[in-house]
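Chapter summary example.
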Amino acid sequence: MSGAISGERTEARLRVEELLREYVACIDDGRYEEWPAMFTEECRYLIIPRESHEQGYVSGFYLCESRGMLKDRILCLRETAIYESQQYRHLIGGTRVLEISSAGCRAETPFAVIRTTQDGAMSLFAAGKYVDDVVFEGDKALFREKLVLTDSTRIDILIAAPL
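The structure predicted for these 163 residues follows.
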């Protein structure tokens, strides 16, 4: 790999990792109203079991196809959803850049989400990998597509918050 290509990959990886750190902090801190701003206006956000995705299914646990739909999902979460209060903590691994284009890149990053309930019980809520199509607009990086591929086909409760 030439130095220029290696430098581009490193720069793209760093930009994606910074976006991901902000993304998980936003969710973990319960700042859901800020979450849609991390996506392009026309975007796709899908939580789906890895196995289902590999078999070509296009719908999963959670699907939004625009920033407006992301905002509606948060409005629903805040105003109409009834669920036990819980805390999420995301752990993300190293990002691997799969492709680079003039507009951005495609990358994947492993994740695990630990859930803590009101009584203090902790459990592994979800694990898998993010497959992200990220665009770079000036100094800003935004998700154009975010696939949340879960390792399990089972989630033990309704997914209220984004993963």
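To summarize the output: The chain has one domain: 3-150.
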